[in-house]
């Protein structure tokens, strides 16, 4: 599915600025921030009172007084003038501290993360030492040693923030240093120093910027805080924190003296944080294309577009005209574009296709497991034992999931919850559908583990998924799928992540259970070898549609669609090493821009002009066979 | 599990030793003659000579450290010349007041932050999410000392609902209700920022977890949506939120410096600020050491809690 | 017989190990143990095995990205580990590598031009003009258009990205390219394109390949000789044809029987089981626990690679090699 949503853009730079400005809050923050920075920069040029000139006669004047826009403080100094000068100082100290911390911290993080081993250990133990002090306490201790003062406060805050940068950057660097492209750069002849500066740093830079944008507000708060305590700016110099500290002494009779600098700090930090969040949203790749949106419990259904259910058929599953789409930004990806399927009791149907063909989306759409957002069912009908699934309530779907229909997914490690024992996970599956008490459910779970041939089932109940091998984990998933004697098992590439010898074991297991339990299986795979081992019938998918369907033997021995033929021929076959592989030239069409006519025509060696005109229907070739081709291969004239 | 805890406990020892070295080095970094600096206004030649002998300040640095560490292990952190009492007594007395305040704040921010984060994530882009996000932003953008002043102005001076300062009433009082009554404003102020941070990270962690394959598995099993969120997702999210709560303990302990100053809470933060102003170095040293050590223990607790949740971490 | 290009002699790689602070032995994992083999100029040596068998570790040792903890790898008689300590680039000029995941092996923030120029500049020391000419040749060799030069990796499909990675390996002008699962991350229709391309390039540039894969059918179709690895050791080695027609190790037999192929019924392995615990390796043959022919000898003594010799150059580490008659290739002994 990830293949469907891959974004391909020439460059994300201009986009980033636009994205940023689209974010109204971030833009608002930016405007306020720019205004404040401009004010601070222009301060010496403005016609202001001397910020430090005292005038005992004019003390504690209210805001909007004659000659003093924001009033005066306890010594009769002009608050507006002090505010602007103070802003300048606070900004300068906060930003300098951020830059120092970012530079030193990032350097430490980069070196530690890239070098690894002993260097990493030594550097990070040092950083841990700094982290072992509660944040502000360390700043206090440094000021205590160096003595109060603005510059010392700056050093203190910078030092205190180094660990944040070091840890963040190290984490990212560590991940990057293990990536293959670093080894590739080594093999391209680059030295370590050059790799660090030209390969790693460009990838780390956004993280540094994000960390800066999220910590600079914090550092300004700390600068103000130390001054508030009288440990930063020393009188008569004004910064926002010391002004607030002064105001505190006259809080009860002249609250504005404290209120004004307090609000100024709040506005400054708020604008920085809003802007910083905007920067983070743009630079953090996880937030792109809605990666951090929460999928809801069931795929959204475009009910206006769904069809009325078909007449009763006696099949376990009937799917007709199913369409599933993904809305990614302004594009709509047609992942599944009108799929018809049916599955008789006890039958195993294989859906074969390459990544992006829509085979997994088709399978996941049946029980509403396609993530929304961005996915959506945009048409068609799905019937389970004659029941209209697209019209069913959420509660009904919940009852059916794991009850009448169970699933096995590809990667058994990520499929199982890492924090629960396998016993608890199976028990949960049982108790979601059967009124058993915990003890009985656990006994049933043990039987299930024994059924899927896990040795020492009793003790394995208390094992966590990470303590089992890949094959064992997949057995657990299968045991879970068998918990409620489901009539339909949907298996999405259940053996792809496994080694061949383990794959054979799992396939044998599925085959045996199918025979014993008489369940129907919908089996998704890309491997014709696996299909031939387990499936009764096959449906081949390409670009969101079924292009050919028939019994396994028919499809394998005598494919009618050129795509099927090519797909079989491009895979090396054991025992026939001398065959030159018949590669399929070109690439599948993008899911948001399907060509007119047959989607395979651009890659098809037999394509004729007619193929590119109109939609090609699935022609009935008799014998329950069908192919979506105007000119099926020899022997299949329609 | 027991061996894991034992291992973690052992690993704390070098950290504490490192802390003690840094705190010890503080003293030596002070410009000028340390004894004179420590004694400040009380630096008579006799006092200087006595201190030099007591701390071994004429000996080489490593030896000085060992003497200092030896004294430390016997509970001797020196004497505050400004207060004229042993540092340890003063520090422990003040520290208990800080623990009450910081503990209350930590509890508050953990509970509020987790709830707000989950509500926010579950209603992503809904009204509850927006309101919480706004409050979180305000929370992490407001200087806590300013918030404290405003709360005093509003709830103590104008509305007279809560006392403006102190830990107990000056006359009478001293019981638990009185303490809680005094605790409300400072604890809330201290918790504000940390609540925002925890809420934010909980939201992100929940959103990340809800995309995981095992959540899909839970749904495919027919587990109810409420259970998916409250059990499956929350437990997994908690694993990454707990260390953040541990780190927030540091922010809360440190932030107490401001809050204690603003609310005149007789804790160790207010003591430290005073001690720095009066250059009472031994008192600063003792205070920093005790708070830092307690923070290390907080983090140890967070580590253990995390490994209780996540079996993969127990090694 | 020609002199080998590379001679691997009793190579061993242990991860972890050493002693703790208190002098206790830390457990070490033998990723590769006592592997000896020669690679001859112009051949394709296939290395096949399941995950965790040590094939990737061996590959990294071959190109000098990792150093063996025992034994030597010699390139034309020179110890690779010794060369890399002095001058890493000297090895990189002769031996190159293609990674499994093409997307992860290309820096997302570098253009194709920057990626391909690095080896031309750093390894071959070409000037600007020469580089330009070579870039065009390289892209042409891997069937990519020159306008791709200014694009970033995320704009390419997996197959295209893998061609770029192959072009980068070619840019160094190597004698030997180590291909580590080069088509495993690709869709089947694209696999064939890349496999055919590799075949063409080999003839055109006179290359030697080490082709690592878990996929037997792919290995069979590309290799002249094959080494089967199990649990860090070579279980069987020999000419491709000979190995696939007449396996002399029960593990090879199992791999062949369980590999799914269209039109072949499912074969269940007789004994189920997992890899041995790497921290507690068995004393005898590592495969004994899963082997249908294992006896006391297998469990107590470890067979050397000369235990079963099929013919010149084809030998297996097995005391009781499966005979030709023991199990036919397309055996129907499916267990139910």
Task: Write structural notes for this entry.
The complex is a heterotrimer of chains A (638), B (315) and C (336). With 638 residues, chain A is α/β, with parallel strands linked by helices. Chain A has four domains: 261 residues, MetI-like (MetI-like fold, Orthogonal Bundle); 100 residues, 3-Layer(aba) Sandwich (Rossmann fold), CATH 3.40.50; 114 residues, Rossmann fold (3-Layer(aba) Sandwich), CATH 3.40.50.300; 91 residues, no CATH class. Chain A is built from 22 helices and twelve strands. In chain A, the strands form two sheets. An eight-stranded mixed beta sheet of chain A has the order 6-7-8-3-9-10-12-11, sandwiched between helices. A four-stranded antiparallel beta sheet of chain A has the order 2-1-4-5. In chain A, a hairpin with a 2-residue loop joins β4 and β5. The N terminus of chain A is likely disordered. Chain B is globular, with a radius of gyration of 23 Å. With 315 residues, chain B is mainly α. Chain B has two domains: 86 residues, no CATH class; 227 residues, MetI-like (MetI-like fold, Orthogonal Bundle). Chain B has a two-stranded antiparallel ribbon with strand order 1-2. Chain C is 31% helix and 21% strand. Chain C has a domain of 89 residues. In chain C, the strands form two sheets. An eight-stranded mixed beta sheet of chain C has the order 6-7-8-3-9-10-12-11, with helices on both faces. Chain C has a four-stranded antiparallel beta sheet with strand order 2-1-4-5. Chain C contains eleven helices and twelve strands. With 336 residues, chain C is α/β, with parallel strands linked by helices. Chain C is globular, with a radius of gyration of 21 Å. Chains in contact: A-B, A-C. Chains A and B meet through α5, α6, α9, α10 and α11 of A and α1, α6, α7, α8 and α9 of B.
In short:
Chain B has helices at 2-29, 34-39, 45-55, 61-73, 87-122, 127-141, 144-158, 176-210, 213-220, 225-263, 268-277, 281-309, and strands at residues 79-80, 85-86. With 315 residues, chain B is mainly alpha-helical. Chain C has helices at 55-62, 80-86, 88-92, 112-122, 128-141, 158-171, 188-205, 216-222, 240-245, 250-258, 296-300, and strands at 6-16, 28-39, 44-48, 70-75, 78-79, 95-98, 176-180, 208-213, 225-230, 233-239, 308-311, 314-316.
């Amino acid at each position: 599915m990830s293949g469907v949503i891959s974004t391909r853009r020439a460059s994300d730079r201009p986009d980033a600025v636009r994205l940023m400005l689209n974010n109204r809050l971030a833009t608002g923050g930016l405007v306020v921030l720019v205004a404040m920075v401009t004010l601070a920069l222009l301060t010496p040029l403005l016609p202001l009172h001397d910020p430090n000139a005292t005038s005992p006669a004019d003390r504690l004047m209210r805001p909007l007084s004659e000659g003093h826009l924001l009033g005066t403080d306890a010594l009769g100094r002009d608050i507006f003038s002090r505010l602007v000068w103070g802003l300048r100082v606070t900004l300068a100290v906060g930003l300098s501290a951020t830059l120092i911390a970012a530079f030193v911290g990032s350097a430490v993080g980069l070196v530690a993360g890239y070098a690894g081993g002993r260097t990493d250990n030594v550097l990070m133990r040092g950083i841990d030492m700094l982290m072992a002090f509660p944040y502000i306490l360390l700043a206090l201790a440094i000021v205590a040693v160096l003595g109060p003062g603005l510059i010392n406060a700056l050093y203190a805050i910078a030092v205190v923030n180094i660990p944040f940068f070091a840890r963040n950057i190290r984490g990212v660097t560590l991940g990057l240093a293990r990536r293959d492209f670093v080894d590739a750069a080594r093999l391209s002849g680059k030295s370590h120093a050059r790799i660090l500066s030209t390969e790693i740093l460009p990838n780390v830079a956004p993280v540094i910027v994000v960390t800066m944008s999220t910590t600079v507000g914090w550092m300004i708060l700390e600068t103000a805080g130390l001054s508030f305590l009288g440990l930063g700016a020393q009188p008569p110099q004004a910064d926002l924190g010391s002004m607030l500290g002064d105001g505190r002494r006259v809080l009860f009779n002249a609250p504005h003296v404290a209120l004004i600098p307090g609000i100024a700090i709040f506005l400054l930090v708020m604008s920085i944080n809003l802007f910083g969040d905007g920067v983070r949203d743009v630079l953090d790749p996880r937030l792109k294309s809605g990666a951090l949106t929460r999928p809801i419990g069931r795929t959204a259904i475009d009910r206006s577009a769904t069809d009325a259910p078909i007449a009763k058929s006696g099949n376990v599953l009937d799917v007709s005209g199913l369409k599933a789409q993904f809305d990614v930004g302004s594009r709509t990806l047609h992942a599944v574009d009108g799929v018809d399927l049916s599955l008789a009791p006890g039958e195993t149907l294989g859906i074969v296709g390459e990544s992006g063909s829509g085979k997994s989306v088709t399978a996941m759409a049946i029980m509403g497991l396609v993530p929304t957002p961005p996915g959506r069912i945009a048409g068609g009908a799905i019937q389970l034992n004659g029941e209209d699934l697209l019209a069913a309530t959420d509660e009904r779907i919940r009852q059916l999931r794991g009850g009448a229909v169970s699933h096995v997914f590809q990667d058994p490690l990520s499929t199982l919850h890492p924090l629960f024992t396998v016993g608890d996970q199976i028990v949960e599956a049982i108790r979601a559908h059967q009124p058993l008490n915990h003890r009985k459910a656990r006994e049933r779970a043990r039987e299930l583990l024994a059924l899927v041939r896990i040795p020492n089932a009793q003790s394995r109940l208390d094992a966590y998924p990470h303590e089992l091998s890949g094959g064992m984990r997949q057995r657990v998933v299968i045991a879970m799928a068998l918990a409620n004697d489901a009539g339909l098992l949907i298996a999405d590439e259940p053996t792809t992540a496994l080694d061949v010898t383990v794959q054979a074991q799992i396939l044998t297991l599925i085959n045996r259970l199918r025979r014993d339990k008489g369940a129907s299986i919908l089996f998704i795979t890309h491997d014709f070898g696996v299909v031939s081992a387990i499936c009764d019938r096959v449906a081949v998918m390409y670009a969101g549609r079924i292009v050919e369907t028939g019994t396994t033997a028919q499809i394998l021995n005598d494919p009618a669609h050129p795509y099927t033929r090519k797909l079989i021929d491009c895979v090396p076959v054991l025992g026939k090493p001398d065959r030159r592989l018949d590669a399929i030239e070109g690439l599948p069409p993008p899911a948001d821009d399907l060509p007119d006519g047959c989607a395979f025509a651009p890659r098809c060696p037999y394509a004729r002009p007619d193929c590119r005109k109109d939609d090609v229907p699935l022609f009935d070739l008799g014998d329950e066979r069908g192919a979506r081709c105007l000119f099926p291969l020899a022997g299949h004239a329609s | 599990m027991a061996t894991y805890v034992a291992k973690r406990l052992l690993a704390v020892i070098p950290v504490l030793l490192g802390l003690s070295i840094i705190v010890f080095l503080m003293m030596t970094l002070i410009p000028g003659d340390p004894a004179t600096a420590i004694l400040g206004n009380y630096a008579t030649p006799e006092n200087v000579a006595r201190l030099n002998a007591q701390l071994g300040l004429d000996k080489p640095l490593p030896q000085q450290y060992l003497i200092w560490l030896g004294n430390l292990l016997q509970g001797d952190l020196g004497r505050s010349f400004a207060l004229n009492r042993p540092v340890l007594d003063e520090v422990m007395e003040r520290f208990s007041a800080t623990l009450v305040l910081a503990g209350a704040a930590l509890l508050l921010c953990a509970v509020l932050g987790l709830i707000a984060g989950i509500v926010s994530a579950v209603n992503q882009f809904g009204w509850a999410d927006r309101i919480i996000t706004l409050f979180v932003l305000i929370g992490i953008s407001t200087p806590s000392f300013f918030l404290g002043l405003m709360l005093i102005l509003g709830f103590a001076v104008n509305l007279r609902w809560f006392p403006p300062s102190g830990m107990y009433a000056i006359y009478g009082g001293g019981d638990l209700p009185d303490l809680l009554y005094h605790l409300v404003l400072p604890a809330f102020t201290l918790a504000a920022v940390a609540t925002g941070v925890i809420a934010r990270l909980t939201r992100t962690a929940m959103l990340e977890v809800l995309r995981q394959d095992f959540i899909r598995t839970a749904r495919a099993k027919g587990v109810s949506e409420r259970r998916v969120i409250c059990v499956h997702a929350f437990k997994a999210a908690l694993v990454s939120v707990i260390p953040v709560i541990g780190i927030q303990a540091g922010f809360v302990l440190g932030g107490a410096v401001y809050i204690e100053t603003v609310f005149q809470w007789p804790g160790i933060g207010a003591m430290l600020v005073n001690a720095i102003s009066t250059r009472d170095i031994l008192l600063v040293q003792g205070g920093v050491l005790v708070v830092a050590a307690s923070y290390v223990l907080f983090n140890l607790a967070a580590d253990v809690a995390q490994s209780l949740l996540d079996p993969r971490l127990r090694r | 017989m020609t002199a080998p290009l590379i001679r691997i002699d009793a190579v061993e790689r242990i991860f972890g190990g050493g002693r703790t602070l208190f002098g206790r032995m830390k457990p070490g994992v033998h990723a590769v143990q006592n592997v000896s083999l020669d690679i001859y100029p112009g051949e394709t040596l296939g290395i096949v095995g399941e995950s965790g068998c040590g094939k990737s570790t061996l590959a990294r040792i071959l190109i000098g990205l990792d150093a063996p903890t025992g034994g030597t790898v010699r390139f034309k008689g020179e110890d690779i580990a010794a060369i890399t300590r002095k001058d890493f680039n000297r090895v990189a000029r002769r031996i190159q590598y293609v990674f499994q995941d093409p997307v992860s092996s290309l820096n997302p923030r570098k253009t194709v031009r920057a990626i391909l120029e690095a080896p031309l500049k750093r390894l071959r020391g070409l000037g600007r003009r020469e580089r330009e000419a070579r870039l065009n040749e390289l892209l042409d060799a891997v069937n990519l258009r020159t306008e791709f030069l200014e694009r970033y990796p995320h704009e390419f499909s997996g197959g295209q990205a893998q061609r770029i990675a192959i072009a980068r390996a070619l840019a160094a002008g190597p004698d030997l390219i180590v291909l580590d699962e080069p088509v495993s991350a690709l869709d089947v229709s694209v696999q064939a394109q890349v496999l055919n391309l590799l075949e063409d390039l080999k003839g055109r540039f006179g290359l030697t390949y080490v082709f690592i894969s878990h996929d037997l059918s792919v290995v069979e179709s590309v290799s002249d000789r094959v080494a089967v690895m199990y649990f860090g050791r070579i279980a069987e080695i020999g000419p491709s044809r000979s190995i696939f027609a007449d396996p002399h190790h029960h593990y090879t037999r199992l791999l062949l029987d369980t590999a799914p192929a269209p039109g072949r019924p499912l074969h269940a392995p007789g004994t189920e089981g997992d890899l041995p615990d790497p921290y507690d390796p068995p004393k005898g043959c590592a495969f004994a626990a899963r082997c249908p022919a294992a006896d006391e000898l297998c469990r107590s003594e470890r067979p050397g690679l000369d235990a079963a010799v099929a013919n010149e150059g084809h030998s297996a580490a097995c005391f009781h090699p499966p005979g030709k008659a023991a199990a036919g290739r397309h055996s129907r002994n499916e267990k139910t």
